[in-house]
Design goal:
By secondary structure, the chain is α/β, with parallel strands linked by helices. Helix content is 44%, strand content 18%.
Length: 223
């Protein structure tokens, strides 16, 4: 039976081609992934919050019956709207899942990689600092469009991190932002080569899904 151990629901922006691949690759036998899409919003921020909530509720309703847990598969834009997302249901928010893992690990010094331009990257950096984390450094790829981000190859992500080894070595973990960025392969390479946890929003959201399902399974990059 598909999803005999657990079924993960996934709400994905229409222009995100990365998170589903990562979830499929990380899924152990007996765990299935079921997704539905939402319209992308300009700048990843909803123009009309009421319309956003209504659409999110509809997407949530499509998955609720067939899913044991549901992930809201978006990164940028959740900072200001997490209260709206939480009102809709018990959704897993990837960035919050990353924070939860860092707290459990006792990590408070991180190096941040994003696919974004400098302004967006700095928003990520400032958000983590507001949560009490020390950021040893950061860099981004200068990309804006979701599909361009999803088309980023593994070794572009790998080299983005490795070219800052002096800053990375001062951190306790590496954080890779954006659910549209497929990180499955890069996580394994980087965590092995750096000897530290390397966590993306996709890996953290998937790990939180498994934890809620009480399923034990190794996720790449998480020691």
């Amino acid at each position: 039976m598909p999803g005999g151990r657990g079924r993960i629901g996934l709400i994905v922006p229409a222009n995100n081609a990365g998170i589903e691949y990562d979830f499929w690759m990380m899924s152990p036998k007996g765990v299935s992934v079921h997704s539905t899409r939402m319209r992308p919003s300009k700048g990843c921020e909803p123009v009309n919050v009421e319309e956003f909530e209504e659409e999110l509720r509809f997407s949530y309703s499509l998955l609720k019956e067939i899913s044991d847990v549901i992930v809201y598969g978006r990164t940028y834009g959740t900072h200001r709207n997490s209260n709206v997302i939480s009102k809709v249901g018990n959704l897993i928010i990837p960035e919050e899942a990353v924070e939860k893992i860092f707290r459990v690990m006792g990590v408070n010094k991180i190096w941040i990689a994003t696919p974004y331009p400098k302004e967006r990257t700095l928003e990520e950096v400032n958000w983590w600092r507001s949560k009490g984390f020390q950021v040893t450094g950061y860099d981004g790829l200068g990309k804006v469009r979701g599909l361009d981000i999803s088309n980023t190859n593994t070794f572009t992500i790998y080299r983005l991190v490795k070219r800052h080894l002096d800053q990375v070595s001062q951190a306790q973990a590496v954080y890779i932002a954006c659910t549209a960025l497929s990180t499955y392969e890069a996580l394994s390479y980087l965590s092995e080569d750096l000897g530290m946890p390397v966590i993306s929003e996709n890996s953290a959201a998937f790990m939180e899904s498994l934890n809620r399902l009480k399923i034990s399974h190794r996720v790449p990059g998480i020691k």
